[in-house]
Amino acid sequence: QVQLVESGGGLVQPGGSLRLSCAASGTIFSINRMGWYRQAPGKERELVASITTGGSTNYANSVKGRFTISRDNNKNTVYLQMNSLKPEDTAVYYCNTNVRRLGGGASFSDYWGQGTQVTVSS
User: Fold this and answer.
1) Which of 36, 46, 93, 112 is in the most buried spot, having the most CB atoms within 10 Å?
2) CA dist., res. 3 & res. 38, Å (int)
3) Using CA atoms, how far apart are residues 122 and 82, in angstroms rounded to an integer?
4) Contact, 20 vs 93, CB < 8 A?
């Protein structure tokens, strides 16, 4: 199986920074994409940022210029550097990966982390 271990969430003042990390482990043959989603109370889960093995990135418009996603392919780890944080960024952040599993043939599967709370408040 594939597991995702998330860390880095917490409480921060508006304008502050946090760095989230997510490490994938298990029966992984290759990773197609890793990314971060978030869900605020009463809101739908939304994509924050994603990155492919080749380094192509996507960002939500609300975080462009403030957040940076990066990846360490050797460690199967993805990072989200969050700067200039706003109260509107408060949410549970979930790591997601799309992988090809060992013994799973040519298909890809999605896996989710348990989520880490990010709270931006004075």
Assistant:
1) 36
2) 18
3) 17
4) yes
DSSP, collapsed to helix, strand or coil, labels residue 35 as: strand
> For residue 45, what are the β-bridge partners?
none
Q: Tell me how crowded residue 30 is: count the other CB atoms within 10 A of its CB.
A: 12
**Side chain identity at 28, as an amino acid letter?**
I
Euclidean distance between CA atoms 109 and 32, whole angstroms: 10
* Angle formed at CA 22 by CA 76 and CA 107, multiple of 5 degrees: 55
| Residue 87 CB partners (closer than 8 Å, separation 6+) | 14, 120, 121
Neighbours of 94 (CB within 10 A): 20
Residue-by-residue DSSP string for 42-65? TS--EEEEEEETT--EEE-TTTTT
